[in-house]
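To assess whether the prediction recovers the assembly geometry, we first specified each molecular entity separately, as shown.
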Amino acid sequence: GAVVSQHPSRVICKSGTSVKIECRSLDFQATTMFWYRQFPKQSLMLMATSNEGSKATYEQGVEKDKFLINHASLTLSTLTVTSAHPEDSSFYICSARRLAGGPNTGELFFGEGSRLTVL
Amino acid sequence: AQSVTQPDIHITVSEGASLELRCNYSYGATPYLFWYVQSPGQGLQLLLKYFSGDTLVQGIKGFEAEFKRSQSSFNLRKPSVHWSDAAEYFCAVGALAAGNKLTFGGGTRVLVKP
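The predicted structure of the complete assembly is given in tokenized form:
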């Protein structure tokens, strides 16, 4: 089946530093990827929609300068948390939408998540 | 705006017993509905989805869900629970067939007693 990989799975950083999280679709192309944030024991909240070759679309209340998203290719989207603070500590999950053609067309596939801890 | 409500935060069930997780949605048009399962510290795995057609949907791991438009519900069921089913379950509604911009419910944590 289709696989979405996130890296790193866990990251610990100091307050004020920037952290980059990668989301890769390993065996399919994805023009659209989504970034979610999940606080402990809570649900997933959509942060932004990442579109290949264009600017990301952010949900209301999400700081675009804080959470930089780049979707440079059909298989890779990156989320950079800039000047991270402890309140940015969370579980970040990406999902990728498979392009038309082949089985599971249009279905969303989720990565395994990246746990960010900001000290 | 679309929204999803999972009324039960926690459910404890004995192994071998049946399980039903409730999901109610609010959406202006025909919804595309999903159930996902999440193990601790892991990503999401799709259990099943409903786009159209037969309102009783079969999924993986022995799960099924029934779409009831009149009740705006999409409840998940399993006849006999296994210890490995202990996890967090999320119901979600999407705007398009691909599940574009999914809105998730708050989740239901399932605990399985031996």
